[in-house]
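Structure (tokenized):
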């Protein structure tokens, strides 16, 4: 290969950066609305459902806990925007030690799922968070043993029951976010033996014990005291992220995920290089709130920062992204805006 001389560079990468049309032609990463999934919080009514209002989430400006009525409108808007799907989270009115609301067909998440399917039909993928933390009074992702530790195998039985309830409510993609060992195999087996072999599994495989879930705790009124380090990954462990994804693929995961996104692009890149199934990333609540907070102060350009974050996650290897900006991003993408 010839190299540039100090007198006259003849290798000039800048040629490709001179005009918009050229930059667009050589762009290596393109965004598409279908790659995006919008997470939606749905709040169980405490009294008269007709009198309920959306509840703003203070730590996530622009995001709310929806009523069933506003859920309908949000799902329709999401479908019209061309995004790929919605991921539903329930915010129950009451909680207990085993998270009974999660398996009750009348529980908020299962009711919301039926409504979302009613509105969306098959125009987008209706997905549900399969985890107990929103429904337990201690806030952990599983049930506790006599010593207060999360009991892996007892939790798997609850996840199996939850999977049936969600599949019966019409969920098309179950988001297994609890980080219990063997959860994918356990849920796959139950779905198949109950006539739900067509329901897919999104495994939150490399899910790190992150401070960036902070705003989400407010979003779901989490009761958690303490931490999730006995089941979520140590932020410093790159190799282990790939190990978890490899195990989940072997157990039958249809899609694997890395979470959070921007702080874990190395893990995402590793998983993307090795995976035989689609790889998604979750741009979590704290990632959303950091950009919104800085933009509200005029410290960064909101739209460009958002587009740059999504572009970076895509560049690192994500085939799909869960992001609270999904619907808004779809509009920008259609208008041809770039980072
Ligand atoms: C577990 C779950 C969490 C998130 C998604 N699913 C919380 C946790 O593991 O602590 C966090 C998402 C976000 O922060 O946006 N049900």
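Design, position by position:
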């Amino acid at each position: 290969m010839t190299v540039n001389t100090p007198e006259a560079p003849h290798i000039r990468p800048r040629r490709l950066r001179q005009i918009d049309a050229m930059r667009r032609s050589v762009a290596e990463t393109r965004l598409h609305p279908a790659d995006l999934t919008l997470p939606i919080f749905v709040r169980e009514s405490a009294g008269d459902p007709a009198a309920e209002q959306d509840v703003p989430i203070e730590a996530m400006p622009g995001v709310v806990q929806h009523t069933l009525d506003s859920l309908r409108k949000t799902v329709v808007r999401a479908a019209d925007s061309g995004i790929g799907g919605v991921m539903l989270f329930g915010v129950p009115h009451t909680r207990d030690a085993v998270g009974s609301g999660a398996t009750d067909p009348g529980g908020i998440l299962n009711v919301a799922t039926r409504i979302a399917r009613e509105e969306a039909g098959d125009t987008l993928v209706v997905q549900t968070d399969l985890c107990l933390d929103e429904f337990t009074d201690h806030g952990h992702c599983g049930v506790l043993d006599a010593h207060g530790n999360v009991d892996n195998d007892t939790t798997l039985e609850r996840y199996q029951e939850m999977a049936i309830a969600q599949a019966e409510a019409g969920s098309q993609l179950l988001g297994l976010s609890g980080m219990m060992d063997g959860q994918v195999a356990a849920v796959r087996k139950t779905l198949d033996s109950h006539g739900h072999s067509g329901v897919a599994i999104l495994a939150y495989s490399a899910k790190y014990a992150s401070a960036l879930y902070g705003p989400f705790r407010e979003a779901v009124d989490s009761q958690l005291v303490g931490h999730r380090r006995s089941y979520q990954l140590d932020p410093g462990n790159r190799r282990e992220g790939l190990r978890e994804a490899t195990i989940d693929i072997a157990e039958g995961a249809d899609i694997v995920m890395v979470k959070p996104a921007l702080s874990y692009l190395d893990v995402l890149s590793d998983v993307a290089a090795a995976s035989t199934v689609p790889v998604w990333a979750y741009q979590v609540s704290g990632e959303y709130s950091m950009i919104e907070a800085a933009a509200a102060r005029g410290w960064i350009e909101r739209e460009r920062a958002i587009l740059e974050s999504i572009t970076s996650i895509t560049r690192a290897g994500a085939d799909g992204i869960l992001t609270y900006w999904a619907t808004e991003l779809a509009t920008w993408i259609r208008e041809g805006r770039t980072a």
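Reviewer-requested clarification: The radius of gyration is 21 Å. The chain has one domain: 31-334.
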